[in-house]
Structure formats: structure tokens, C-alpha cells
Specification:
By secondary structure, the protein is mostly helical. It has one domain. 88% of the residues lie in helices and 0% in strands. The protein has 2 helices and no strands. The radius of gyration is 55 Å and the shape is rod-shaped. The protein starts with a helix and ends with a helix.
């Protein structure tokens, strides 16, 4: 029985302490002036930061589009560069072919000059005695 009375009294005490004290009107809450001032400053900072964040996001999007555009330009220049390298390589091959052809033509020219010189000397050697024989005989 003692336990029952003790349990009953414990329940009554705990229900009284846990029970709601009544309806509290939040419109009448008091906040110290300094705390309220700091809250307003923080809210103003929050609004300003929110606007700055929107501007930053726009700027990030614009920079991203700029980056994409510049990457396309870089790719175009790289393609042109590779085409130019091929053209330069072909031009160098042409120059080598022209040099080789020039070298061959120079050798042939020297050979023909030597041949003409020998032909002139030999023909002169043949014509001179024949002319002497015809004139003096």
C-alpha cells in the first residue's frame, strides 16, 4: 500500500511539473535592444549577401560560357596549326625535290659544256688542217 501511495504521489507531482503552464503570447516576447539590433544587422547582411550571391552565380555562368567559347577558339587554332604543319612539311619536301633536281641539272649542264668545248676543239682541229690543204694546194 505504501508503494501505491508513493506511486500515486509521484504521478501527481510529475504531471504537475510537466503540465503546460498556459498559453504564452509570442508577440509580447522581450528581446534586449542590443540583441534585436544585432538580429536586424544580420538580416540586412543576409539580404545583401543573397543579392551578391545571385550576381556571383550570373558571373560564374558568364565566365563558364566564355571558357567554352575560348576552348572552341583554341580547338580551331589547333586544327589550323596541324593543317599548317602538314602544309609546311609538304613545302619542305618540294624544296628538297627542287634542290635535288637543281643539283642533277647542274651536273648535266657541266657535262654538256665539257662536251661542247671538246666538240669545238676537235672540230677546230679537223677543220684547220682541211682548210690549209684546200687553200694551199
Amino acid at each position: 500500500m505504501k508503494k501505491l501511495i508513493m506511486l500515486f504521489s509521484f504521478l501527481i507531482v510529475s504531471s504537475l511539473t510537466m503540465a503546460q503552464k498556459g498559453i504564452v503570447d509570442t508577440s509580447e516576447m522581450c528581446i534586449p535592444y542590443s540583441v534585436g539590433q544585432k538580429i536586424l544587422l544580420d538580416l540586412n547582411d543576409y539580404d545583401r549577401v543573397k543579392k551578391v550571391n545571385v550576381l556571383n552565380e550570373k558571373e560564374i555562368k558568364e565566365l563558364y560560357s566564355k571558357i567554352l567559347f575560348q576552348e572552341k577558339i583554341i580547338m580551331t587554332w589547333e586544327e589550323k596549326d596541324s593543317v599548317n604543319k602538314v602544309i609546311i612539311g609538304k613545302t619542305e619536301e618540294k624544296v628538297e625535290i627542287y634542290k635535288e633536281e637543281n643539283k642533277n641539272l647542274s651536273k648535266e649542264n657541266k657535262r654538256l659544256k665539257t662536251k661542247n668545248t671538246l666538240f669545238t676543239i676537235i672540230s677546230g682541229a679537223i677543220i684547220a688542217p682541211l682548210t690549209y690543204l684546200l687553200v694551199f694546194k
